[in-house]
Amino acid sequence: MTGLFNRLSLNSLTPEDRAVGVAVGAVLAGAVGLAVFTPLAGENAAAGTPAEAAVVSHHGKAASKTRHVKKPSATAEARREGFKVAPHRVKPAEVIKMAESQVGIHEGKGGQTKYTRWYVSTPHAKQTAKRDGGRVSDYNGASWCNMFVSWVGAQVGAKNMGWDAYTVGHATWFKQNHRWGQKARPGAVVFYDWQNGSKGRIGDIDHVGFVVKDNGDGTIKTVEGNTDDAVKNRVRSKSMVVGYGYPDYRK
């Protein structure tokens, strides 16, 4: 599937953007279905935490008669995008706990997993398939390490984790949004190049997972999907790491 991913859109909206934009737009504009999209702008992006849509009061001619119209909540809009909860700043430990709760899960027949089924069900899958010159159905049975990372982020509502089915696309997103670096932090999304290691480029990335901790001896403990066809904890040499993506975590 690698050959399909030659051109990456620099301006495509992430699921977080849409989930935040639709909810905030409904509140500020007072119109159901009006979306206000704020593309990410890096570390200081002012996307904010999606607020639950308020119950808006419309006053008629008589002061005593008030009509209440319930607007769609941020949670409802986020779920339409594929999140279990609306994106917000979570602790790294929450992401690690969710990821490690999946350890031992193996892929099924034809490489199918709940992570691929979830990804295919999201509106974002259509965008990435179009970007990559393929079809949504191509994700069924495809390498799912990055779909696992994306699923974990969506389950806990991790803000500015982004999601993708393609490791190169996801790493590129982190770098474009100034969330890319070389320090192994707990909860960071770690990207590997098996051939060139730390000398590799983003375009050479082969695999992805989460950092659990830096062991302090040149290795990191990780949790990864699609490693020997399963979710497993691993100990990896930092010499194999191209870089790390940093979601917007709270301390």
Number of E strands: 8
Helix and strand sequence? HEEHHHHHHEEEEEE
- What CATH architecture label applies? Alpha-Beta Complex
At the first level of CATH, what is the class? Answer: Alpha Beta
Rg is: 19 Å
Q: Helical amount among residues, as a percent range?
A: 25-40%
Shape: globular
Q: Unreliable stretches, pLDDT < 50, 5 or more residues?
A: 1-12, 20-64
**How many helices does DSSP assign?**
7
Short description:
With 251 residues, this protein is of the alpha+beta class.
Structural description of this entry:
It is a single chain. This protein has 251 residues and is of the alpha+beta class. The protein has one domain: endopeptidase fold (from Nostoc punctiforme) (Alpha-Beta Complex). The strands form two sheets. The chain has a six-stranded antiparallel β-sheet with strand order 3-8-4-5-6-7. Strands 1-2 form a two-stranded antiparallel ribbon. It contains seven helices and eight strands. It is globular, with a radius of gyration of 19 Å. Helix content is 29%, strand content 18%. Helix 3 crosses helix 6. A hairpin with a 4-residue loop joins strand 5 and strand 6. The longest helix has 15 residues.
